[in-house]
Amino acid sequence: MTTTAEPRTPRRVDPRIAERRTAVTRTAGRRRLRVILVILALIALAGVGWVLTRSPLLDVDQIDVQGTERTSPADVLGAVGIDRGDPILYVDTGAATARVEALPWVSEASVSRRLPDRVVVRVEERIAAGWIRIDDETVAIVDGTGRVLEDDAPTSLYIPELRGVGSTTPVAGETLEDTAGAAVAASLPEQLLARVAAVSTDGDGTDVRIGLTAGGEVRLGDPDAVDVDDALAAAVAVLDSLGERVVAYVDVRVPSAPVVGPAPG
User: Fold this and answer.
1) Which residues of the chain have pLDDT under 50?
2) Do β-strands 148-154 and 128-133 pair in parallel, antiparallel, or remain unpaired?
3) β-strand partners of 217
């Protein structure tokens, strides 16, 4: 005996539930569409940005060098390492600044962008404090830190000679073995600078003497053991009181109690 199954009557879905399901499906579809649109927009922006950064509109067309006197602009341009036509947004200003500051005469530098196409290099140069004789025609110029600024300058300079700075031949960009004399030369007040012929050290910086153009010397001693500014001020006061009289030495190792030596010879 065969049994015939009765057809199942489909369940009727509540219209409110059906409407809710439809709304959920539409919301999910709109969300997916928004995500796709955002991704496409980001891709488009990245592409536009990539094109713009390499556009001739944002290439380096001009490099300005400011503040140089003893350093040639050509040397600065060579050190900065930026060429006309480089994408300006990809210029590494930090690395360029470090390369410029490695130049012997440069104390501080800054490299900055000026959109759309200009790079500005500002330089602050070191101040010469003294010179060291290399031969009869040339000398090396040194700043107050003992850094050698030039190693082939002419001899006509209005700064004191430095003696006893070490046996190594000065090379531009390097630092002297004994920097005490250079530091003292950089500290000379104007009232004393015009009277100074040379600043000498004993090789280890513990005995500094200042040779005077009129004869005699100022004995400063160890710069680390005395207030250099006070000692130099005391030397100026004593020399002013002496007028044109020349003495063998003015000892200012104790600035508050300077000692004057006898007339030379």
Assistant:
1) none
2) unpaired
3) 211, 249
Q: Where are the domains of the chain?
A: 16-46, 58-125, 128-260
CA angle, 152 then 136 then 148, to 5°: 30
How far apart are the C-alpha atoms of 161 and 176, rounded to whole Å? 14
DSSP letter (8 states) at residue 88 = G
**What is the C-alpha separation between 63 and 68, in angstroms, rounded?**
14
CA distance to 176, 186, 233, per residue, from 127 (Å): 16, 8, 21
The CATH code that applies to domain 58-125 is: 3.10.20.310
Cβ neighbour number for residue 28 with a 10 Å cutoff: 10
Give pLDDT tens digits for 208-257.
999 999 999 999 999 999 999 999 999 999 999 999 999 999 999 999 99
The 10s digit of each residue's pLDDT in 29-42 is 777 777 877 777 77
CA gyration radius for the chain? 38
Four-CA torsion 38, 40, 41, 47, nearest 10 degrees = 150
Residue-wise burial string across 192-218, b where 16 or more C-beta atoms lie within 10 A, e elsewhere: beebbebbbbeeebebbbbbbeeebbb
DSSP-derived letter for residue 169 is P
φ, ψ (nearest 5 deg) of residue 89: -70, -15
Kindly report the CATH class assigned to 128-260. Answer: alpha beta
The conformational region for residue 218 under phi > 0 = left, psi -120 to 50 = alpha, else beta, is beta
Q: Give every CB contact of residue 48 below 8 A, 6+ residues apart in sequence.
A: none
